[in-house]
């Protein structure tokens, strides 16, 4: 079966969802709508129509323009607080009805293109709790920090509202500490760690299954089929970068090549190279990112030794793995904090 992928220019985001939300935000702030829509090819009159769709590239440019016009360091946090559960039809109702945090995170990760179209959320549950990783879905380049802050704020605000209390999330950022973090502290709290290896949010296991006052597990079970039917056009569709990441993650031990992945996608290697370049990346960068993330999990969570991790990642010996890991992360395996 041919893998179904979307590129950053593919219309796949209903204009009445996140684009309309961003426009409404601009209007509420009395910002210039014309400037927010500059070069996007979008028309304010059609942004509320459900039959119209925009591409991720258009929404990214719209947010870029909004940030420039607003000139407000708190913009990603304030906008993020309105992002979820959103008014996106049945998928938003599923989040609204979630009985607890575990169920909400599971549903969030189930429909990334509907609920989080610009960054892919990946959730991991273990005995210690839940970790929500945020991954670039479209090659967001200079907007990466803005989007990470927006999406972390979205989940923190949503879970605070649905649970009725501020949950003790721990936030980890894969970037250097900004000179000013007052906005982060106001909207996210003080459990902030910069210079981390991945953009992620972590919360302890004790919070995952606590009942939420608005929750209704039975109603979620009834609503999920409605959401699946409503999202049928996007069901199973993923961005090229997300699809490639998921594919590589399961095949690292086979040392997958660009040609292998192109064949799996039923396209030529040249086409895959062109697509990746259009997303601001290349095959080796994507492969190294997956290897680094898997290596971190194997070393920190499973406590495996270098030789075993090297084998799992397709390296011939542990010395080559150590050198590669230092190149990916700036650290040797022995320097990691466990």
- Total E-strand runs: 9
Reading off the top of the CATH hierarchy, the class of the largest domain is best stated as: Alpha Beta
Q: Report helical residue fraction.
A: 40-55%
How large, in whole angstroms, is the Cα Rg? 20 Å
Name the poorly predicted regions: none
Largest beta-sheet characterization: 5 strands, mixed
Strand content: 5-15%
CATH topology of the largest domain: H-NOX domain
Gap between N and C termini, in Å?
40 Å
Query: What's the mean pLDDT score?
Result: 93
Please tell me the total number of domains: 2
Order of helices and strands: EEHHEHHHHHEEHEHEEHEHHHHHH
CATH H level, superfamily name of the largest domain? H-NOX domain
What is the overall silhouette? globular
CATH architecture assignment name of the largest domain: Alpha-Beta Complex
Strands of the widest sheet, in order across it, are 4-5-8-6-7
Helical region count? 16
Short description, anyone?
The chain is of the alpha/beta class.
Output the keywords.
338 residues, alpha/beta, H-NOX domain, Arc Repressor Mutant, subunit A, five-stranded mixed beta sheet, two-stranded parallel ribbon, 16 helices, 49% helix, globular
Account of the protein in words:
By secondary structure, the protein is of the alpha/beta class. The protein folds into 2 domains: 5-230, H-NOX domain; 250-335, Homeodomain-like (Arc Repressor Mutant, subunit A). Helix content is 49%, strand content 11%. The chain has helices at residues 18-28, 33-36, 56-70, 75-80, 90-97, 101-110, 112-115, 144-163, 182-188, 217-230, 240-249, 258-265, 269-278, 283-300, 306-312, 318-329, and strands at 5-6, 13-14, 53-54, 119-126, 129-136, 170-173, 192-194, 200-204, 238-239. The strands form 3 sheets. A 5-stranded mixed beta sheet has the order 4-5-8-6-7. A two-stranded parallel sheet has the order 1-9. Strands 2-3 form a two-stranded antiparallel sheet. Helix 5 packs antiparallel against helix 10 (217-230) and helix 11 crosses helix 14 (283-300).
């Amino acid at each position: 079966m041919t893998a179904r992928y979307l590129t950053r220019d593919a219309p796949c985001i209903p204009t009445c969802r996140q684009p309309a939300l961003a426009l409404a935000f601009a209007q509420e702030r009395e910002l210039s709508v014309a400037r927010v829509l500059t070069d996007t090819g979008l028309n304010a009159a059609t942004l509320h129509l459900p039959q119209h769709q925009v591409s991720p590239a258009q929404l990214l440019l719209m947010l870029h323009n909004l940030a420039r016009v607003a000139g407000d360091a708190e913009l990603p946090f304030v906008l993020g607080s309105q992002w979820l559960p959103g008014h996106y039809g049945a998928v938003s109702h599923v989040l609204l009805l979630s009985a607890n945090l575990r169920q909400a995170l599971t549903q969030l990760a189930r429909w990334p293109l509907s609920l989080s179209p610009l960054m892919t959320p990946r959730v991991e549950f273990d005995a210690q709790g839940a970790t929500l990783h945020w991954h670039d879905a479209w090659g967001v380049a200079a907007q990466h920090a803005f989007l990470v802050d927006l999406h972390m704020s979205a989940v923190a605000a949503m879970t605070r509202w649905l649970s009725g209390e501020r949950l003790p999330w721990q936030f980890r950022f894969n970037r250097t500490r900004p000179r000013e973090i007052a906005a982060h502290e106001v909207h996210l709290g003080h459990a902030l760690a910069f210079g981390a290896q991945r953009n992620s949010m972590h919360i302890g296991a004790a919070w995952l299954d606590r009942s939420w006052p608005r929750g209704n597990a039975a109603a979620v079970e009834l609503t999920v089929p409605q959401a699946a039917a409503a999202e049928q056009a996007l069901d199973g569709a993923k961005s090229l970068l997300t699809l490639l990441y998921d594919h590589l993650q399961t095949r690292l031990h086979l040392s997958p090549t660009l040609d292998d992945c192109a064949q799996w996608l039923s396209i030529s290697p040249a086409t895959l190279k062109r697509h990746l370049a259009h997303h601001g990346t290349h095959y080796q960068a994507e492969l190294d990112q997956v290897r680094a993330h898997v290596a971190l999990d194997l070393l920190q969570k499973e406590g495996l030794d270098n030789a075993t991790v090297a084998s799992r990642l397709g390296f011939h010996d542990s010395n080559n793995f150590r050198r590669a890991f230092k190149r990916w992360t700036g650290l040797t395996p022995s320097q990691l904090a466990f």
